[in-house]
Amino acid sequence: MRAGNQFWWFALISIAVTLAIISSISIFFWRQLTPDAQSLLIDIIKDDFGYVFAVVFLIIAGLGFALDGIFHTYILPVIKLKEEVSIINSANPAHRIQIEGNRDVLGLAAGINESANRYQTLHREVEQRIADANAEIDADKNILAAFVAELPEGVIICNVDGQILLYNRQAKTLLTGDHGNGAGEAASESGKFIGLGRSIFGLIDRNLILHVLDEMVGKLKRKDADACAYFALVEEPSRSLRVEAVPVLNPRGQLHGFILILFDITRRLESSTRTSSMFQSLVQRSRASLASIRSAIEAILEYPEMQTDQLQRFRNIIHKEAVDLGCFLDKKANEFPDHLRTHWPLVRTGAKGFLETIRQKAESRLGVRLDMIHCDPDTAVKIDTYSLQLALLFLLAQLQRITGQSAFNCELRKKERLVHLYFIWEGRPLREAMLHQLEEQVLSVGDERIPMQLKTVIGHHEAELWSHSRRHDTDQAYIRLVLPSVVDTIQTIRGHHITLLPESRPEFYDFDLFHQPGQIPELEDCLLTELTYTVFDTETTGLNPTGGDEIISLGAVRIVNGQLLGDDVFDQLVNPQRSLSRDSIRIHGIQEDMLIDQPTIETVLPLFHRFAEGTILVAHNAAFDMRMLQVKEGPTGVRFINPVLDTMLLSAIVHPAQESHNVEDIALRMGISIIGRHTALGDAMATGEIFLKLLPLLAKQGIQTLKDAILAAEKTYLARKKY
Known about the structure:
This protein is of the alpha+beta class. 48% of the residues lie in helices and 18% in strands.
């Protein structure tokens, strides 16, 4: 119960008790009077009722004024004094108490201000000493941070749950297509978001990451010299990436996280494609020219005594074809430099272990039994494990569908520099037309899918796929995949043989996220300091969400591990497809011509929904903003089910005696400078800073979890406001 309410309840109870005592005394006195005296008293009251009533009214009014004066002079200043001291201790050490009250309270406030001045002076001296002591260390850390940020390769560090702990600008460009360097970007062209605390699964297929983790865990168990994993990532038809995954271990040697290093190989693959096309054109052109030259020479040799003019004609043919072929070769040599080597990331892999993985996944995911009847020992191949694994599972799934069988034999035999892999079954072989149809299909097995055709994966591995029946057994058929074998121990890709340990990681990055709880069912019981938030604000054409007013600007910023991430923001103007009033323009400063070429809410809201996915929404006067989003559920098909916290209500919890809880007054109390007031992103940033300042004040009142905050907010008088 608020202290002010306690005082008035005490006053009312005191008045009631006083009246009860006076009534009891009056009744006792009345009974002591004689009947004549009682009649006389009644007559006096009747004759002078106006005077009696006036006296009683003045006594009650005087008592009320006296109580109100006592409350505002002694009670309310003490309540405000408590709140002001709480601000100094927890949120804003530079805040000073300015209240009205009695002399004693004002003296106490002056003493507290004086102590606060001394405390702040001492605090600044300590901070300066700490800053001086850490200056040299910070310089080294900043150099390392700048180095990581400017690496030509993309770098992403994740924990074992896939939460992003660190990324650089190049990784953001490669995975989202966003070439911006700072805030103000609503979303990338791909609609993907990258940021601290976000999941890598929103950028790279979950099944691919899980495959990579399984591969690294397997290598660690086998104590391989290179525990890294390598894979190709096709982001879109125009972008291809080579990715190296480096495990991060804890002191017990267990997987604690992983680092992804991204290389853009789009141009290299395009160059390889052009080189392949060049080779084909060279072969065709050379064959044609050589055929003409050979025919002319054979004619000369067969008829040595032919006429001079005819002999000269054959000589001209030979000369012309030789010159044309030379010119053609020179032209192609200038057009295509030396890019004859494929750049698809192929890694030396033991065939036996790879096929064992195929066998296990075929049985668990497809219900297909794969019996290994022969495998040449110590056979190694250069492959991209994920794409080839999915290709072989795809083949088995299709064979199961076409043949109606759920059991196949498998053989792997090495013949000179080739490795032959057989899938064998009882029945007829696949027709060539059927095999070609399979090669044209995009690889998809269950919920796993990569945007490449089967023939593309086979081509990247320089492999061949055939369908046959066995000569010695006409009842058996097989599909054969022919791969180049590994004839040396040279790796296609330089491996990262040094596994990073937690002790070697840079401390100024937020690696504490390794131990964050993540998304768990008991979300309401999570501490407020452990949750991830999206703080947002809207600018609108007016204040009537259901009366046709529209959102014209949407801004948001994320809070991860108690830090406001100024470079992880959402900032987008919205075309409301209606005119703006002068009153609204005067507030937010957004002109109609600024919105003409902007996307509509049907485009912007789904992007914001992905930006805020898996977080707690925070806003000031959130009921209004949430209502603006709610009325757009129908047109956009987007529904926000995130838990919501309102800084206006949270402020009313920690400072119930304060009269104002708007953004400006709260920021003034907390010592926060607002930049960009009445812009969506500026207000969102200010709200985020206010929210972080409120957290320790809430904790002092025992409000530490999301459930605590929601229940406390519901009890405030401001929560009664509806839209």
